[in-house]
């Protein structure tokens, strides 16, 4: 179900039983909290049984409650303000250790990222990047750091990599002025999704370039315009999104390309090692200067 689940729930309320309406009303009014609740807790908050909550999910067309909550999370994470994120974080942490809870959340994000990516799609994306005439990479705000990391590492292999500066919307189009057929835009965005990236994707697609979208799911606004999608979970552990799984996915892309372009990468690294040694850019154990 790729529709906005909140709109779906609202549109079907007139056909729901009294208990189901209680669940629907609670989700619509407290979606930022409901998205992270167990079926039992949601039932207590709505004043119904846990089994009623499970049946509610099935009536909406889901296989079970976890699938419903994934849909709610996908929809609402892009809606949460920074203040709401703090409230959700406190609700989820409770009395547990922030260290343990955060690291376990990151582990879960990585596991979900592994499960949701098709190895064939990943391999095809790697081939398309290697074969591209020019590689453009774009991300906004926190995603810009991921874009810069990917661009830096790909530039060790290719001389056709351009990391798009997304600080100004006007400059995005200027930097992508010559993008066209045979080129690729790697667009990176996670909730809260950036309009600049959505517009950059639309521009690149209109110019005939291929788009590889790196995002959190099919409900992302860049999904419909991307020729290929790679998924990374960024389920927040605090007021900011977790970038652990997205960074792991970027690492996988870098490793896969490095293996396929090993000769080119080795040549570049050998040259860099000579430069680093000549200009003493790194400390050495034997260097007492």
Structure description:
There is one protein chain. With 289 residues, this protein is an alpha/beta fold. It folds into 2 domains: 5-112, Arc Repressor Mutant, subunit A (Orthogonal Bundle), CATH 1.10.10.10; 118-276, Glucose-6-phosphate isomerase like protein, domain 1 (Rossmann fold), CATH 3.40.50.10490. It contains 14 helices and 5 strands. It has helices at residues 5-11, 18-29, 31-34, 39-46, 50-59, 65-76, 82-93, 98-116, 119-131, 142-155, 169-175, 195-206, 244-260, 262-278, and strands at 135-139, 161-163, 184-188, 210-215, 228-231. A 5-stranded parallel sheet has the order 2-1-3-4-5, sandwiched between helices. Helix 12 links the parallel strand 3 (184-188) and strand 4. Helix 4 (39-46) crosses helix 5. The longest helix has 19 residues, at 98-116. It is elongated, with a radius of gyration of 22 Å.
């Amino acid at each position: 179900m790729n529709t906005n689940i909140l709109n779906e729930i609202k549109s079907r309320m007139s056909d729901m039983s009294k208990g189901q309406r209680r669940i629907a009303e609670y989700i619509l009014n407290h979606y930022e909290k409901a998205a992270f609740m167990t079926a039992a807790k949601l039932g207590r908050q709505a004043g119904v049984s846990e089994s009623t909550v499970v049946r509610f999910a099935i009536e909406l067309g889901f296989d079970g409650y976890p699938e419903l909550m994934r849909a709610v999370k996908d929809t609402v994470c892009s809606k949460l303000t920074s203040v709401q994120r703090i409230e959700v974080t406190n609700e989820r942490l409770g009395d547990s250790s922030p260290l343990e809870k955060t690291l376990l959340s990151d582990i879960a994000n990585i596991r979900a990222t592994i499960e949701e990516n098709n190895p064939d799609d990943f391999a095809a994306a790697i081939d398309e990047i290697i074969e591209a005439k020019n590689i453009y990479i774009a991300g906004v705000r926190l995603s810009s750091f991921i874009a810069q990391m990917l661009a830096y590492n790909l530039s060790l292999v290719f001389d056709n990599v351009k990391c798009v500066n997304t600080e100004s919307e006007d400059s995005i189009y200027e930097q992508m002025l010559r993008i066209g057929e045979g080129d690729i835009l790697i667009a990176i965005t996670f909730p809260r999704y950036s309009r600049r990236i959505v517009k950059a994707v639309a521009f690149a697609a209109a110019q005939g370039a291929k788009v590889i979208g790196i995002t959190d799911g099919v409900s992302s606004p860049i999904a419909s315009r991307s020729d290929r999608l790679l998924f990374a979970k960024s389920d927040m552990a605090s007021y900011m999104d977790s970038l652990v799984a997205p960074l792991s996915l970027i690492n996988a892309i870098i490793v896969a390309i490095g293996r396929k372009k090993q000769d080119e990468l080795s040549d570049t690294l050998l040259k860099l090692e000579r430069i680093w040694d000549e200009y003493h850019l790194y400390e050495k154990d034997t260097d007492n200067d």
